[in-house]
Amino acid sequence: MATSTTLQSYLAGRWQTGGDPTATLINPTTEESLATASSSGLDLAEAVRHARDVGGPALRALTLPERGKIVDAMSQAIHAHREELIELGIANAGNTRSDAKFDIDGATATLSAYAEWAAECPESTFLSDGEGLQLGRSPRFHGQHIWVPRHGVAVHINAFNFPAWGMMEKIGSSLLAGVPVIEKPGTPTALMAERIAHIVVDAGIVPEGGFSFLCGSAGDLLDHLGGQDGVAFTGSSGTGQVLRRHAAFVERSARLNVEADSLNATVLGPDIDSDAEAFDAFIRDHAREITQKTGQKCTATRRVFVPEAMVDEVCEALAAALDAVKVGDPSERDVRMGPLTNARQLEDVQAGIGRLAEHAEIVTGGPDRTTSKGYFLAATLLRARDANDDVFHADEVFGPVASVLPYDGEAKTAAQLVARGGGGLVASVYSDDRRFPIDAALELAPYSGRIYLGSSRIADHGTGPGIVLPAMVHGGPGRAGGGEELGGLRGLQFWMQRTAIQGFKSIVDPGFGQARA
Ligand code: NAP
User: Fold this and answer.
1) What is the residue with the minimal CA distance to atom 31 of ligand 1?
2) SS3 assignment, position 327
3) Is there a single domain that holds both residue 353 and residue 443?
4) Of 265, 349, 459, 491, which sees the most CB atoms within 10 A?
5) Residue 186 CA to ligand 1 centre (angstroms)
6) What span, in angstroms and rounded, lies between the C-alpha atoms of 434 and 410?
7) Same domain, 106 and 123
8) What is the pLDDT of residue 4?
9) Enzyme catalytic residues
């Protein structure tokens, strides 16, 4: 692999390269530099104008099924380069083959799902929202809500951990809505994202201006956004807070969707003992959640709530499952967990383990590097002395780290402890009882974007809690940012305007009521 690649941006319909200062992308296994990225000096005002004025009209002129064909072609073009992209994930993100496939296949599967839903949509450039309504005493005065594409751009700012999936989960819904996209990947792993951008542009499947790509920092991009534009941001809650204060949102009412940190939790029901199939699923699912992508997954489990009487057994079984995960050079096929993405991530995770360890016993793993080269740590499990300690509910340690916390076996207590995390992307409950999961889910729901109910009956059928499915919403309240993405055609709504049309039924109904998805 070249060591001095300069990554490019695709803006205003042409490939461009920023000037100094540059960011350096590295291979976290060898610590060698792979590429540089910079957005300095790029004309982002022109980029926004081009997307809005050229890409917007072109996409809005297409019907939803026509837009779906673009999304489908995008999925196929990326899939055709799967092997090459896997290699980039291994080199630049420290992904194992399996982690890289998870990212790339997640991207193409999400696009395909959106393409399939689009194929079933009416041949229309907008959508009707629900049934029409009689508004007056006679049926003549009639109302209908519709969804139309906004006349702006969809800016997607992504985190470093899913360079493929993160980008594509936002593109599917935006393009289908009829809104041009400007992609801004997390810089540390932008190598794969930039390659995908080249694949998309080379395939010539998106109309001119419909797809733009900004590599390097966001620069003054947000300064050029107004009331028809939107930003879907995924990243840390700290950056989310900075964005929320930006004049684009505060003064000009651009839309902002924030997907941020999450102290995802799992609860083992009091009915589950170590003989239950659900117990094996619980251990298997969480060993995977803690180690997949080296724990750098927004939906990874951070807090494991276990009835007091089962804490010893869970610690023993989960530690054994984590110890069995081979850590090392992710290009080796038997390796199951690679390094953290860069030195900053490693230092953050080491510091996080240190903070947790002041209030817990380390069951396995720990903060020490396992090699002198590369950003490797062992999967780490801690056992809390007191589940009420703030440290377990305050700080997302974005690596292969989780804590086991005892609770009294009551659904309400578990839910109150989970809620201490301030709002999360996903919570899971493992139980074969008929009542416990329902009681727990109803208590957990206000604090969770998604709830996964694991049980012996779905031990071999469910995905586990960490997989984001395009048919179900992704996002969470509070600390998790308060945003929402995906969820089938619901995902389009953020990029569209819902407008109420009122008038003579013979005009309103045939004109606006026939485009129901
Ligand atoms: P980050 O440092 O907050 O960066 C996220 C993105 O924001 C990057 O593209 C970054 O660009 C950009 N950015 C930073 N400052 C900005 C500013 N002032 N204006 C505009 N853009 C700005 O997060 P990260 O380290 O990449 O990702 C890890 C975090 O993401 C974790 O906390 C994780 O929980 C969260 N995450 C959440 C989800 C979810 O769905 N909720 C999914 C994945 C990750 P540069 O890279 O160029 O700095």
Assistant:
1) 236
2) strand
3) yes
4) 265
5) 6
6) 14
7) yes
8) 59
9) 259, 298
